Amino acid sequence: MTNSKITVSIPQDMALQLVSLKNELKTSMSAIYKEALESYLEKKEIEKWEKGAKLAGQDKTYTEFIKDCTDTKVDLYEY
């Protein structure tokens, strides 16, 4: 995978905290930023799925369809 360089502006106190963390963990700033961004993207993906599930739960047609699909009185067959 090809890496891309980006530039971000952060408050000075945050930058100092990150440098301290980098030194404590004996790692690179890139590794810290990469881990933080991966966590952020994962969080946003989860939020997106949660929003979709909430919207689906509010859709009467969808909930009735799901109820019909999960009716336990119907025989299920394995193929």
Overall pLDDT level: 90
Query: In percent terms, what proportion of residues is strand?
Result: under 5%
Distance between the termini: 41 Å
H/I helix tally: 3
What global shape is seen? elongated
| pLDDT < 50 stretches | none
The structure class reads: mainly alpha
CA radius of gyration is 23 Å
Series of H and E elements: HHH
Largest sheet: none
Pick out its properties.
elongated, 0% strand, mainly alpha
Description:
- The chain has 79 residues and is mainly α.
- 68% of the residues lie in helices and 0% in strands.
- The protein has 3 helices and no strands.
- The chain is elongated and about 60 Å long.
- The two termini are 41 Å apart.
Concise account of the structure shown:
By secondary structure, the protein is an all-alpha fold.
Write the layout of secondary structure elements.
Layout: H1 12-25, H2 29-58, H3 60-69
